[in-house]
Design brief:
- By secondary structure, the chain is α+β, with helices and mostly antiparallel strands.
- The protein has two domains: 148 residues, Immunoglobulin-like, CATH 2.60.40.3880; 92 residues.
- Helix content is 39%, strand content 29%.
- It is built from three helices and twelve strands.
- The strands form two sheets. Strands 1, 2, 4, 6, 9, 11 and 12 form a seven-stranded mixed sheet that branches. It has a five-stranded antiparallel sheet with strand order 3-5-10-7-8, with no helix packed on it.
- Helix 1 runs parallel beside helix 3.
- It is rod-shaped, with a radius of gyration of 35 Å.
C-alpha cells in the first residue's frame, strides 16, 4: 500500500567573489560565468549583501529589495585595460561604479594604471515574484582581459515566500502521515484484518498529496498548502480506521478466548461434580 514520493525542493545559497575597475560604459550581452576560473588580476571583498530573509534563513523574500556592495582591491598593473561584464536577474536592477550607471548586460572598461587603491561597486534591485522556491543570480561579474575571460564574482540565492515554505513543510508532514498510515494498514492486512475503509482514506490522502505537488509545480502555493493539509487529514483518518479495525479484532479474539476459558472451567467443575457423586461424596 505504501507509495513513495520525492519532494524536489532545492535550497541553494551560494556566495562567491566579485569584480574589477574603471573607464567607459557600453551595453553588451552578458553571460553566466560560474564555470570560469577566478580572475588573477584583482581581489574582491564583499562589503554587504542586504535583503529580507524568510524564516531567518539565507533565502530571499520574493519582491523584496536587494542591495549589494563590493570592493575591488589589488588591481593588477600588469595589463593596460580589461572589461567587466555584469549580469543580474533582479527586477529593475541598477549598478554604479563611480559616476557610471550599469544594468544587466552592461560592460565597464577598466584602465588598470589609472585605478586607485579600491574601487567600490554598488548593485541593487528587487527579488523576482515567485510561486515556488527558485534560485536566481543576484549579481554575476566576468572579467575579459587580453589573457582570457575570468570570473570575478557570482552571487546566487534561493527566492521564496512564507506561504511557499509553509506549503513545502505541509507536504513533508503529509508524506510522513501517509507513510505511517500505510505501515499500520500493511500490518493489519498481514494479520488478515479487513481494512477497506482505511485503504480508501489512504487512496484519497495520496490523491491530495499528488495534487499538492502539481499545484506547487504550477506556482500555486496556496492551493498546494490546502491540498497538503487535506492529504494529512485523510492519512490520519486512514490510520485511525486501521487501528480501530485492529482493536475490534483483538477485542473479539479476547472475548472468544474468555468464553472458551469459561466453558472449560464450567466443564471441569461439572466433571469433578459427576465423579464425586459416583463416589458418594457430596
Amino acid at each position: 500500500m505504501k507509495i513513495g514520493y520525492s519532494y524536489i525542493l532545492v535550497l541553494i545559497v551560494v556566495g562567491a567573489f566579485f569584480l574589477t575597475p574603471i573607464m567607459s560604459v557600453s551595453g553588451v550581452g552578458a553571460e553566466k560565468s560560474t564555470s570560469l576560473p577566478k580572475s588573477p588580476f584583482l581581489n574582491v571583498e564583499i562589503k554587504n549583501i542586504g535583503y529580507d530573509r524568510v524564516y531567518g534563513t539565507e533565502m530571499v523574500k520574493n519582491n523584496s529589495e536587494v542591495s549589494i556592495k563590493i570592493a575591488l582591491t589589488n588591481i593588477s598593473r600588469e595589463i593596460e585595460k580589461s572589461k567587466l561584464i555584469f549580469y543580474s536577474e533582479l527586477v529593475g536592477e541598477e549598478g554604479h561604479i563611480r559616476d557610471a550607471v550599469l544594468k544587466s548586460g552592461s560592460s565597464y572598461t577598466v584602465e588598470h594604471k589609472k585605478v586607485e587603491e579600491e574601487v567600490v561597486v554598488i548593485w541593487s534591485g528587487k527579488a523576482p515574484e515567485v510561486g515556488k522556491q527558485e534560485t536566481f543570480t543576484l549579481l554575476d561579474i566576468t572579467h575579459e582581459t587580453t589573457e582570457g575571460t575570468y570570473l570575478v564574482i557570482d552571487i546566487k540565492r534561493a527566492v521564496t515566500s512564507e506561504i511557499i515554505e509553509d506549503a513545502g513543510k505541509a507536504w513533508y508532514e503529509a508524506e510522513e502521515d501517509i507513510e505511517k498510515a500505510s505501515w499500520i494498514i500493511a500490518n493489519a492486512t498481514e494479520e488478515g484484518i479487513k481494512v477497506e475503509d482505511a485503504e480508501l482514506s489512504l487512496e484519497l490522502a495520496n490523491e491530495h498529496l499528488n495534487n499538492s505537488m502539481e499545484c506547487y509545480s504550477r506556482g500555486e502555493p496556496e492551493k498546494a498548502l490546502k491540498e497538503a493539509n487535506l492529504a494529512s487529514d485523510f492519512a490520519k483518518v486512514a490510520e485511525e480506521k486501521a487501528r480501530t479495525a485492529m482493536g475490534l479484532t483483538t477485542y473479539k479474539t479476547y472475548t472468544i478466548l474468555v468464553v472458551v476459558v469459561v466453558i472449560a472451567i464450567v466443564a471441569f467443575v461439572f466433571l469433578i461434580g459427576q465423579r464425586r457423586r459416583k463416589r458418594g461424596i457430596y
